[in-house]
Amino acid sequence: MITDRIDDHQMIARLEKKSGIITIKLSDISFERLEVSVIKTSVSDIAQIPPILAKVWIRDERFGRVFEAIYSKRLRVMEKSSAFIDYAYYSNGLIYLNGWLPNFSRIEVFFLSDGAAHISHSDDSISHIRSDVTNYVTSQLKMESFTDAHGFSLAIPKCSAASDVSIVIMSGGEAFFIYSGVPEVSNSAERIFPTVLDSWRHYGNTPLKKCLDLLAPFISKGSCQTDYRVQTRYSTDLLGKPALSIIIPFYKEWKFIFSVLSLARKSPENWEWIIVCDDPGISHHLSSMVLNSEDSLRRRITFLNLMQNVGFGSANNVAANEAGSAHLLLMNSDIWIADFKVIELALEEIKGSKFKIIGFTLLFEDGTIQHDGISYKRARDYDDMYLVNHPGKGLPPTFERDLPEAIECRGVTGALMLMEKQYYKRVGGFNKIYVGGDFEDADLCLSTISANEKIGLMRSRSIFHLERQSIRKDGMSGFGFARTLVNCRKFTERWSPFLDKQLETNSNA
Can you tell me the distance from the alpha carbon of 492 to that of 277, in angstroms, rounded to the nearest whole number? Predict the structure, then answer.
């Protein structure tokens, strides 16, 4: 927003850019208001803005010079220079552009979309090392190369995928058009994430915050809808009210349904197994396995088939609404329970009201610790964001083998988490601000601790977790890592005041 006094007219002009529309609001000394909206559909339209109004925008510190050059029609074509768009992706009113321009990191560049309704500066972009371009610039373009950082990535507002983009270089007070057109848009966002994150991880020339600012709009939170079908339901008529409802979401990897059904067969008959398909792509596999299981098993299963992916947290929240028991056990599909006695003992602890939430020690296949409670610590190499750590991970357990016990802790993983349904509903379930399956369990634990409630950890050597195997097809991609980082930033923004205060209290104790 720019505000200036136009003395000739004794009026205050305020210019606002929003949704591709320039609105110039004029107020006289008696505060009567007149609004003039100028919708810019092409660069040439800038020249049609009345001079007295153009004066306001020209004074903008970042964009005034390019606006003035275009407005004054001081446009030139730069010889021997051109920009190339290698990849473009459009989503939710933003277009992501990845390409290269000779000596990009050493020059001042403006990106214009929808004519000039939106303007971005090269300072808003991420530069990439492109040694291959250096060779091309010197040998083919016969230009001098001052850097290897010729590549760029940025996201700019754009009203549609079919509208134009222009690239302008400012030099010596003049504007040089070097690209104007409609980039070919990909239907996949996969290339965005590794390209942007590599500029932080491998080259170290871009702050993590800048990468996340660019990536966050392209990381979908999933559908806000929770439409689903209940294809089978636990039979209360035959089995009575369930003593425990076990909620197991499935996403991408469906083959763990074999082990889940095996566990269900061995479990107490009055436990309800709620299988949630959060991925339409694997629905037919899960449906076939559940619907074709034997009657004695199928009547103990509630099978929810979500019409669209809603994410780990929302999938659990939907299932909790359908649960028939007063107690919930949230469980990942890659959990194996060798002895259900541990779950029964934890259930008694919850009923005794000592703990609001109970988690469990989880082991890798080789018997070493995968999870034995969580801690929270800032990581300097991740922009000082709070990470969730698993103390003792990979080490042999040191507690007694045959004496399961519940101890108080600061948090537990959502891979296997027990609580009353009433409490889960009271706190609103898993927080919906997180994308996919990261940090909502730690968020729930901190909500519990900050309310002066206790969390327990049931220690045993009877439960195993094939960590992240249930979502490995997603987590190994650039998107999976980017999503975790975006969730980490949300978690840090939400809980750093509380965690900082706890850390200060503990250090002074």
Answer: 30
